[in-house]
Amino acid sequence: xxxxxxxxxxxxxxxxxxxxxxxxxxxxxxxxxxxxxxxxxxxxxxxxxxxxxxxxxxxxxxxxxxxxxxxxxxxxxxxxxxxxxxxxxxxxxxxxxxxxxxxxxxxxxxxxxxxxxxxxxxxxxxxxxxxxxxxxxxxxxxxxxxxxxxxxxxxxxxxxxxxxxxxxxxxxxxxxxxxxxxxxxxxxxxxxxxxxxxxxxxxxxxxxxxxxxxxxxxxxxxxxxxxxxxxxxxxxxxxxxxxxxxx
Length: 247
Ligand code: 13P
Hints:
about 40% helix, 8-stranded parallel β-barrel, alpha/beta, about 15% strand
């Protein structure tokens, strides 16, 4: 399937940034964004700000979501937030398995797949993140790592995977200012696309994340298998984020 058949998606991951006052300005700027942008746009905000995002963005071209979700439906899981709760705030997206969750919160490949499944069951679109460390990258293990991370996710089956978004985020490129080159990213995206095609779901959007900015977005988006971006730092500056979306 050609890239033209897949819509471009640019999602912001605010990580643990923001305040009511700061968000108000950022959300207002996004709300005012040109709805003719060639990209679909969304923001994944910290849980406490979901209501604020929902209120500010309702009826706009910008969708919203969260950065994590519990794999459990409900119950005695102190501190966790369920997919149904996210749905209550009209979330469209939820990140699953961001490398910072994997690294600092011990999320395994199976946990990530369980979270993706929980998200789907509540009608959310999970954005499943994969990516290798610098050591793995330098050892030539990138594709092996990606395939390992994807295995339990793809095992959820074609019907489930067809309703997901995937994001390739090389850990060495996150917050480092050192993006993968478009060709490096394309190589990995092509391998992910081959896995998706083998499952019968080649139309799934695969985003790139890791030091995406307005200056490098167009060259990344020019690649055949890169369907958009998952943006960290640059998503905190409305003008920069919107320039990425317009690239
Ligand atoms: P940066 O864009 O800040 O490198 O972060 C990428 C990321 O982790 C998005 O999820």
